Amino acid sequence: xxxxxxxxxxxxxxxxxxxxxxxxxxxxxxxxxxxxxxxxxxxxxxxxxxxxxxxxxxxxxxxxxxxxxxxxxxxxxxxxxxxxxxxxxxxxxxxxxxxxxxxxxxxxxxxxxxxxxxxxxxxxxxxxxxxxxxxxxxxxxxxxxxxxxxxxxxxxxxxxxxxxxxxxxxxxxxxxxxxxxxxxxxxxxxxxxxxxxxxxxxxxxxxxxxxxxxxxxxxxxxxxxxxxxxxxxxxxxxxxxxxxxxxxxxxxxxxxxxxxxxxxxxxxxxxxxxxxxxxxxxxxxxxxxxxxxxxxxx
Length: 298
What we know:
This protein is an alpha/beta fold.
């Protein structure tokens, strides 16, 4: 098998489905189906058992996956180490960050960075899901959590807290309710809200994985939402409600693979974001309602 074949097998191993592998590789389903069938036929091996719910590795498939991962890591290490010697303030930076942080804190900083460094292209990946820096899926990551992953260069930015927000009309009408008596909106990607241990007692009326949709649900008076203060304080139509509960608290981190410590453009962006985000530290914990002067569309 050549490297292209191994990458395809590895993608199926990780995704467990042909459609998932096709998405990861940027090709269509029929291409993946045709190629894996050809690989198995040419090598007289069954790498996967076909099941209604997906593709399950055989022993041969696990062996190929192991060797493919070793080759992938070696190839990625070469790329990272070469990139780590790049002293140009030009080229592409792959940055990943959550939606709310990007929209309500990062964008002014990214705007100023792009103006300062017109030779740098920013490739922004909006997600809260884990991306593998060792697989070169991103060069720099903004993440929120209790502690940073091991094996990465991590810079602590600031504390990051969540508060309760609702529409002014909803709050005026239901202000005297106990916390568990309220109607709640849930964001799938947020860390466990304060009521996670009381889930069977909480009245969840709406949930989605879109911050914009959830904000709209709050504005329409469907219920309350536990959301980062940096978001809730800037969305028109949302009002903070202080409840007698312990707010969720995390920390914000900037993460970089150690091999990229010498890459000028990545270091420049990391330092730019670190300085800019730390200036907003009060807003991240709900102590400062001031926001940037850009248009604040939700």
